[in-house]
Amino acid sequence: MRRWGVIAAALLLGACAFTTTTSVSELTVDDPRIGAPAGENAALYLTVRSSIEDRLIEARTDVAVRVELHETVHGDDGTMGMRQVEAFTVSPGQDLKLEPGGAHIMLLDVEELTVGEIVPVTLVFEEAGEIEVPAEVVDLADTMGEDHADH
Amino acid sequence: MRHLRLLALLVLVGVLAACGGGISTDELQGVALAEPTPKPDFTLTDTEGNPFHFAEETQGKLTLLYFGYTHCPDVCPVHLAQIAETFDQLPQVAESSVVIFVTVDPHRDTPEVLREWLDRFDARFIGLTGTPEELEAAQKAVGVPVAFIEGDGEDYTVQHAGQVLAYGPDGLLYAQYPFGTRQSDWVNDLRILSQIPPEEA
Predict the structure, then answer these.
(1) B174: domain CATH number?
(2) Which pLDDT tens digit goes with each residue over A28-42?
(3) A41 part of contact set with chain B, CB < 8 Å
């Protein structure tokens, strides 16, 4: 029997960043954040840790008309693009990291959002079921933190 | 002996050149070009509908050039947000710089859409568009890979060059900034590049 809608949210107010952690028994979602949209679309980033093999198969939110899972494609010619995928995999010791330039949850036809706003997002995992996470709207320049850049 | 004197002279010239004006482009954190290359020329249309002659209208200014599209949620807006943040931190650099965003999605990025999107970052950013042929010619002139459409219907995406190109006030391309550039690197580099003396008019 799968447990649905069991949400334990811990709010961690750090000195420099506001991050949230949402956990069910097997799975933890860290730092869900949405780059403040300038146009029709926006990207949601987060990190998932899981003690079992699982797949993120869907995401839903009221602030977007459609939500898709996207990975970034690096072309041989130096171009960058993105491609829709069916699922993202997470396994023990292999965190799922959605971050700028990598993969993201794409919010299409998104509403106007302001920095600091908290947007509820429902993530659907094959094993862990549905988890609602509070995604914070952040300045896009801040989505590329000093720690996130891989040089 | 003669060779030795010539060598000494060359070393001296090299040292003087490196120290000239106290600008050291060696400190650039972006992907610096071994040999800076001249700014190309192309003509596109700005968001007011006026022709924009790239070389002429950016002369003497630190120029950042980027090809992207407004439906892009990930790479494009992060670059622009980082440049806007740098301008907030370095207002004097912003005054003497120009940021050019060229759409590679002229079908959806009408001048109005482009203007509204750029204003979210910085109203000084210039948006350019053109026919598909003009845009392809501009990308080729600049030397970036030409963007192409992926997918069908209205929700297509565009695969395009991910880097911002930075031309000094002297009209030379000094460095490129791929996606993943740190905010502190932008601040460091725009400060350096803005100090390069402008080209002679």
Answers:
(1) 3.40.30.10
(2) 999 999 999 989 999
(3) yes
